[in-house]
Design a protein that fits this description.
Rossmann fold; 15 strands; Isoleucyl-tRNA Synthetase, Domain 1; binds adenosine monophosphate; 15 helices; single chain; binds zinc ion; ATP-binding; Cys-tRNA-ligase; EC 6.1.1.16; ATP binding; Cysteine--tRNA ligase; globular
Length: 479
């Protein structure tokens, strides 16, 4: 049985979904006003691995919903500061709508490149404005919100637990709020948060706006996640994910407004938070010039799968530190793992499922031992580095046959998502002349002209390239 840390109880708990056999999982998506970075990659790979564990190992039918925040919201999580999308528009000379579209496309491509399964539903905040308005109406009817000339606010003191959620005190939050630049404000309590902003005062020119019972304006940021998770997954959901930055404001606000609207508790049964990724021990920031995209990692010659491997080596509840030296090291271990895997003899049938009640039970006793070790590792609060160690042990084992090794590791990779069985494309920077020699040598190998093919390998090496043979093809790399 899967055991997972629930940030709400701050304990490791056994995972039991609300409805038998099914899991509803909602992930806070990106704000699409800038390029995603490798910190986003970490968070969404962790979500993806959780989803894969639930589907592949635990056998659940998962509905994974992720939002796209394309309504401008503020640079800080609280209600003050600059609008992120408008800032993005200013930077690029485009409209806020174009900015959102462009960065959403970019985000999807980056996530695809990390082999993250696309969520079953990806919903934009701007496509769900009536749902957000409807939810705010319910909250108001239930007496948890008040209307002011500048905004509709949620009244946090009406929600008894607000101050204790995720172990954060209301006092801590108030200190945070006070530290920000407060301009106009008709809040009853500084910790109250906006459900609907009116297009007045500093927002008089706000580019995105809609009609509502409270006048022309736009939704506060937090309400979109409550509205969309309920729309697609119901009023109570199994898992909600996010980065650690959401523990203090965004997620307590989501809980407060959702439970205030429906009266049902808990809004979310398990909260799953990923810790942040830092670069060279420092927070990523534009001023330090250390905000890297997945594309920057690829440009330096690393495979996105090596980056994914880097993510898997750090537990989701620990800070992860990225460095170029670290990247070099994990890239080498990833290549080694893949090479060992691809060198195994292919015999067919190795892709048969080995997990859960529908597992094909033809594994040997030793095979079952390794399978169980893998399952124990992933079920132990997703200990992925231990799970990778099991894959390595399988490949090194002297008693298992190639066939069974391949079958085990191919199944493990349904959780890792490291594309171990996909032969890498030949890198684009191999000169045509060398490629011609490689192809010629392949033909010789096929017609068993071993001496000639060996001579050609030597010639290719003299040109500075190394060819490695596998049962079903070759790879070429620069020496
Ligand atoms: P944002 O677009 O800033 O709202 O971020 C989208 C998601 O990525 C949120 O769940 C954040 O918590 C998460 N995130 C942002 N920066 C990092 C980082 N450096 N490391 C890990 N996760 C992050
Ligand atoms: Zn959210």
């Amino acid at each position: 049985m899967l055991k997972i840390f629930n940030s709400l109880s701050r304990k490791i708990e056994e995972f039991v979904p609300i409805n038998h056999g099914k899991v509803g999982m909602y992930a806070c998506g990106p704000t699409v006003y800038d390029f995603p970075h490798i910190g986003h990659g970490r968070k969404y790979v962790n979500d993806d691995v959780l989803r894969r564990v639930l589907e592949v190992v635990e056998g659940y039918q998962v509905t994974h919903v992720q939002n796209i925040t394309d309504v401008g919201h503020l640079v800080s999580d609280a209600d003050e500061g600059e609008d992120k999308l408008e800032k993005g528009a200013e930077m690029t000379g485009k409209t806020v709508w174009q900015v959102a579209e462009q960065f959403m496309d970019y985000f999807l491509k980056e996530m695809d490149s990390l082999n993250i399964l696309r969520p079953n539903v990806q919903c934009k905040a701007t496509d769900n404005i009536p749902e957000q308005i409807g939810l705010i109406q319910k909250i108001m009817e239930n007496g948890y919100a008040y209307d002011t000339p500048e905004a509709v606010y949620f009244e946090v003191t009406k929600f008894a637990d607000y101050g204790q959620l995720f172990g954060q005190s209301l006092e801590d939050k108030l200190v945070g709020v006070r530290g920000e630049v407060v301009t106009e404000n008709s809040k009853k309590n500084p910790a109250d948060f906006a459900l609907w902003f009116k297009r007045v005062g500093k927002f008089a020119q706000h580019a995105m706006h809609w009609e509502s019972p409270w006048g022309d304006g736009f939704p506060g940021w937090h309400i979109e996640c409550s509205a969309m998770s309920m729309k697609y997954l119901g009023e109570q959901i199994d898992i909600h994910t996010g980065g650690e930055d959401h523990l203090s404001i965004h997620h307590p606000n989501e809980i407060a407004q959702s439970e205030a609207a429906t009266g049902k508790r808990p809004f979310v049964k398990y909260w799953f938070h990923s810790l942040f990724l830092a670069v060279d021990g420092k927070k990523m920031s534009k001023s330090l010039g250390n905000v890297y995209k997945v594309a920057d990692v690829v440009e330096k010659g690393f495979s996105p799968m090596a980056l994914r491997y880097y993510y898997l080596s750090a537990h989701y509840r620990k800070q992860m530190n990225f460095s170029w030296e670290g990247m070099e090291g994990v890239s080498n271990s990833y290549k080694k793992l893949k090479k060992e895997f691809l060198a195994l003899r292919l015999e067919g049938g190795q892709d048969k499922n080995i997990f859960g009640p529908s597992a094909d039970e033809s594994l040997t006793g030793r095979g079952k031992f390794f399978r169980d070790e893998f399952v124990n590792a992933v079920e132990d609060d997703m200990n992925m580095s231990a799970a990778i160690a099991v894959a390595r042990a399988v490949l090194k084992d002297e008693k298992l046959k190639d066939f069974e090794k391949r079958r085990l590791v191919e199944n493990f990779d349904r959780v890792f998502g490291l594309k171990l069985s996909e032969r890498d494309e030949i890198p684009a920077d191999i000169p045509a002349e060398v490629m011609e020699m490689v192809n010629k040598r392949e033909e010789m190998r096929k017609s068993k002209q071993w001496a000639e093919s060996d001579a050609l390998r030597k010639e290719i090496e003299d040109k500075g390239y190394k060819v490695s043979d596998f049962f079903d093809g070759v790879t070429v790399e620069k020496i």
